[in-house]
Design brief:
The chain is mainly beta. The protein has 3 helices and 17 strands. It folds into 2 domains: 162 residues, Immunoglobulin-like; 145 residues, C2 domain (Immunoglobulin-like, Sandwich), CATH 2.60.40.150.
Length: 333
Amino acid sequence: MPKLDLPTTSRRSNSYSNASSTSGTLTATDTAPFMDQTPHALGQVQIKLIYNLQMGCLEVQVVECRGLPHFGKHYPNTFVQISLLPEDGYSEHSKVRTSLRKRSFNPVYNEILRFHNLTKFELDERYLQIGVWHSEAFHSKSLIGECFLKMADYPWNYLDPIWISLKAYPESVPPDPLHVETSRGTITFELRFEMKRTMLKTGDIHFLLKSGHSLCGHPPILAKMPFAKVQLVSGRKVLISARSCLAEFPENGFRPVWDYDIVIQEQNLKKLRKRCLEVSLWDRESASNRRYIGRIRFRISESRNVEDEPQVLWKRMLQYPNECIHAELALRG
């Protein structure tokens, strides 16, 4: 685990001026550092973490790097790439990166990168993998150095950015094993593709939301007025969005019932293989406020080694149109 270097003052040292961070002109501050075996031989990166409670997301402010090494015969053309570990298959939790800074040993970014739809509780069980990369010609890249930061170890009450030393870790290998297990409740539903035009292979997606059990999310507060939002997504673009009615509780507060059919009309079977159906559950706390509970994503993963139950159901729906698929699945963060 990398040591967090907390600065003694919020003012930058004169030896690491950012006068030339965004230009191609080298100044006296951009001289190549002496390559030795000290902990800072690969340089340092300065970041600040903020949990945005209103948006429900983690904000990573990438401030700058300093003391980066001379990269072969090149001055470093760098960007900072950040991943949230362990990977959970959600696009908004995947890698994010800054823009490129050219020909600088002390590049300044001052950019905010975001990971959406996360609770503060979940962050305490995760890591950030922060890598500084050198970009070469023809879109190739090489890792300069990286660090791993455990969310539970971050000084959230500290207002200033922190410096972390870069090390030569193997790429994508966290310092120790990590497993995240959460319980947000379950939903029972039926999934079906109703074929309307056989020749064109087009029809409607039916998601019949039937009932739920112990919908709470994190922190574990039992939902009182839960509803579902269904989105058809292509890449990062939301194509269609719909929502259910509020649930009723005919028996007790643990088993909400909807029996509500959400229909996504006029879809092509072939195109659906590259699209994602995201079902998210929310609790309406007031007329203007809602609390995120959890979600399920139906899609075909790009990774051949990953095939969870929602992916199996999505494949079955595409393979057998008009078949009604009954299932009960646990919500994820």
